[in-house]
Amino acid sequence: MPMKYYFHDPILVKYLGMVHGLLFVLYVSFLAIVHFQFRWGIWITCLAFMASFIPFGTFYADKKLFRI
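Above: the chain's sequence. Below: its structure in C-alpha cell form.
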C-alpha cells in the first residue's frame, strides 16, 4: 500500500502483491515439508504458521523458538 500511494502507481501493487503471495505459499509449503521430514510436533508447526501472520514474526521465531 505505501508503494501505491507514494509512487502513485497501482501497477506496483499488482506485481509486488503477487511476489508476496508466492513467497507466502512457498513458506507454507516448506513448513509442511519440514513438519514431516523433521517430525515436528503439531504445536511447533502451528507456532511457525502463526508467526507468518506477524510482520517479521518468522525471523523472531527462527531466532528464539526454533534454534536449539
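DSSP finds four helices and no strands in the chain.
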